[in-house]
């Protein structure tokens, strides 16, 4: 791959972001790896070498975003940015009926508004500024199976990912004016810290709600799934394909080959999927403790 190509990856301190930085750097790409802490910057530099340049970037902080864009602009020297990978994300499980609104808003701030704010800041570097040298770049939004299928107890995360995909579709059509493409990479289960962090959420605060039992069942299922997911490098390879394919797809679903992850929910009637989930998690009125009708 041409060593002159440069890509920005947000949320690069761990998981999919770090693996993507490693995959891209291994193919000769100069990676600007967005991190929020200096210790993560040092870790990336020591582990991945000179082709990975850590950049302080908090996707919820307008000043941090502007500073990162300015730093990347200086380093590019008038060249076009080859790609932007909006990977930074957060998942906080909880029932929508009871979850604090600040936790719901945070998931939208990071997973949706952060991706849009970063995209807007880097659009001139990607080719919206026609004075730059080189072909227009691409934006890759890292979504999720949850961007199409909403599981219970991760409603805010799924809603933000649904919105991310809708935003990206609209943005892709707007940016055709500049030749900038917008592509979705949607992983299924992945062995990454995002779900370890989610597991550390204090779910005991919901113990006195009628949904405590189903929530515990969902937590166990989600952890079981995440331990059997793809390694994050597999998602990094899909992101590489989205950035470099001659005719990229608009959406790449990267899902382990278990039919209940993707195939069956997409094919079966919605109400049947509802009943299957209710049976698995104990969500029927008789088993959940919720009042019946």
From TrEMBL:
Gene3D superfamilies in alphabetical order: NAD(P)-binding Rossmann-like Domain
Domain (Ketoreductase) ranges: 5-186
Organism listed in the record: Tautonia sociabilis
PANTHER family: 3BETA-HYDROXYSTEROID DEHYDROGENASE DHS-16 (PTHR43313:SF1), SHORT-CHAIN DEHYDROGENASE/REDUCTASE FAMILY 9C (PTHR43313)
Family statement: Belongs to the short-chain dehydrogenases/reductases (SDR) family.
Domain of life, per lineage: Bacteria
Gene Ontology molecular-function annotations: oxidoreductase activity
SUPFAM superfamilies: NAD(P)-binding Rossmann-fold domains
Name of the protein this chain belongs to: SDR family oxidoreductase
SMART domains reported in the protein's UniProt record: PKS_KR
GO aspect biological process, one term: steroid metabolic process
């Amino acid at each position: 791959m041409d060593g002159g190509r440069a890509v920005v990856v947000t949320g690069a301190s761990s998981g999919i972001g770090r693996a993507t930085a490693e995959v891209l750097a291994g193919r000769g790409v100069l990676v600007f790896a967005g991190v929020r802490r200096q210790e993560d910057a040092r870790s990336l530099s020591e582990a991945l070498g000179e082709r990975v340049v850590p950049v302080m970037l908090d996707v919820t902080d307008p000043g941090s975003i502007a500073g990162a864009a300015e730093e990347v602009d200086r380093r590019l020297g008038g060249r076009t940015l080859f790609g932007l990978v909006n990977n930074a994300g957060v998942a906080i499980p909880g029932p929508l009926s009871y979850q604090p609104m600040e936790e719901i808003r945070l998931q939208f701030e990071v997973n949706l508004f952060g991706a849009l704010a970063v995209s807007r800041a880097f659009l001139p570097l990607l080719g919206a500024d026609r004075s730059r040298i080189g072909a227009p770049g691409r934006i890759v939004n890292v979504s999720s199976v949850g961007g199409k299928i909403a599981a219970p107890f991760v409603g805010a995360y799924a809603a933000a990912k649904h919105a991310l995909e809708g935003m990206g579709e609209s943005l892709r059509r707007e940016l055709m004016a500049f030749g900038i493409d917008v592509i979705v990479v949607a992983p299924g289960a992945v062995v990454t810290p995002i779900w370890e962090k989610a597991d550390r959420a204090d779910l005991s605060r919901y113990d006195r709600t009628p949904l405590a039992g189903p929530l515990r069942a969902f937590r166990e299922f989600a952890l079981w799934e995440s331990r059997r997911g793809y390694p994050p490098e597999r998602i990094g390879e899909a992101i590489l394909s989205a950035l470099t394919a001659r005719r990229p797809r608009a959406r790449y679903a990267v899902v382990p080959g278990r039919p209940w992850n993707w195939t069956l929910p997409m094919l079966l009637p919605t109400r049947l999927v509802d009943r299957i989930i209710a049976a698995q998690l104990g969500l029927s009125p008789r088993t959940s403790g919720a009042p019946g009708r």
